[in-house]
From TrEMBL:
InterPro entries found in the cross-reference section: MetI-like (IPR000515), MetI-like_sf (IPR035906)
Superkingdom of source: Bacteria
Annotated transmembrane regions: 12-34, 82-101, 110-132, 144-162, 183-206, 259-278
Coiled-coil ranges (or none): none
Keyword annotations from UniProtKB, A to Z: Cell membrane, Membrane, Transmembrane, Transmembrane helix, Transport
Domain spans labelled ABC transmembrane type-1: 75-278
Membrane topology: Multi-pass membrane protein
Organism of this sequence: Cohnella phaseoli
GO biological process: transmembrane transport
GO cellular component, one term: plasma membrane
Subcellular location: Cell membrane
The protein's name: Putative aldouronate transport system permease protein
Main location: membrane
Length: 293
């Protein structure tokens, strides 16, 4: 039977306290937002606008938001973006990684240099806006997808993974008559599925949470994604006078703060629903391209 020394027990206690503190700090804001979104106006005032567990929870805020066509329109836009964007990113990233993994590719070093440069350096806000404008993408959904359609870091991860595959695997496939597309679809993609799942999850979250590009490139409010609408809801001055003013107008039963918190919860639910299905690939996908074998 192994007996722990005093220093080992102290170490374990400290580690557990740190982990518990981190967990509480991560979960507390979510519980606060959910609690506030279920609180009535009277209880909100009585408890000085700080509620974790409401005594008389209400779903009135959610009913009002879900009855708004503005919310549903923005939800459809964000869903379409979060589906099309990651799919195109995975497609181009995988094909690009497979091509750059071929050591016989002419100019391979030059291509890798430019890809690495996009990771280290950014073109800047104004030059990027001018490029989008000159391409005629203002007030187009493609302005939200094209600028981040290729994941340079993910491309390098997949490239390293392909290079670390045993040479006999690809050579035997070629002997059996497999072409480039066949090797990519039947060998590379199945083996790299965990990394692709992790890259796709990161890209999906980036698309779903993004609002600043919509602020820059979209003038038509009917084209706003959900996060842009939520941003306007959380900023009182920008809401005044538009179609969201009626949604945010407080009533006798719920306050404006309750509506805002309910809007935040609506915005995070889709990602929370997707994450459990990709969680098993998450850790493995992050390191599989960095260690040989």
């Amino acid at each position: 039977m192994h007996y722990k020394s005093a220093s080992e027990r102290t170490y374990q206690i400290v580690i557990h306290l740190i982990v518990i503190s981190v967990a509480i700090s991560a979960v507390f804001p979510l519980l606060y937002v959910i609690g506030m979104s279920l609180t009535t106006k009277a209880e909100m005032i009585a408890r000085n606008y700080f509620v974790i567990i409401p005594l008389e929870p209400t779903l009135e805020a959610y009913k009002r938001l879900l009855a708004s066509p503005v919310i549903w329109n923005a939800f459809v836009v964000s869903t379409g973006r979060a589906v099309v964007g990651p799919l195109l990113t995975l497609l181009l990233t995988t094909i690009g990684a497979y091509v750059l993994a071929q050591r016989t590719l002419p100019g391979r070093g030059i291509f890798l240099f430019f890809i690495l440069a996009t990771i280290l350096f950014n073109g800047g806000l104004i030059p990027t806006y001018l490029v989008i404008k000159n391409l005629g993408l203002i007030d187009s959904y493609w302005s939200l997808i094209l600028p981040i359609m290729v994941d340079s870091f993910g491309l390098l991860v997949i490239k390293i993974f392909i290079e670390n595959l045993p040479d006999g695997l690809t050579e035997s496939a070629k002997i059996d008559g497999a072409g480039e597309w066949s090797m990519l679809l039947r060998i590379i993609i199945p083996l790299a599925a965990p990394a692709l799942a992790a890259i796709g999850l990161f890209n999906l979250v980036a698309h779903w949470n993004s609002w600043f590009d919509a602020l820059l490139y979209l003038n038509d409010k009917q084209m706003y994604p959900l996060q842009m609408v939520l941003k306007n809801m959380l900023t009182i001055d920008s809401v005044s006078g538009d179609s969201m003013n009626a949604v945010l107008k407080s009533s006798q039963s719920i306050s404006t703060e309750t509506l805002k918190m309910a809007a935040v919860v609506i915005g995070i639910i889709p990602v929370l629903c997707v994450y459990p299905f990709l969680q098993k690939h998450f850790v493995k996908g992050m390191y599989m391209g960095s260690v040989k074998g």
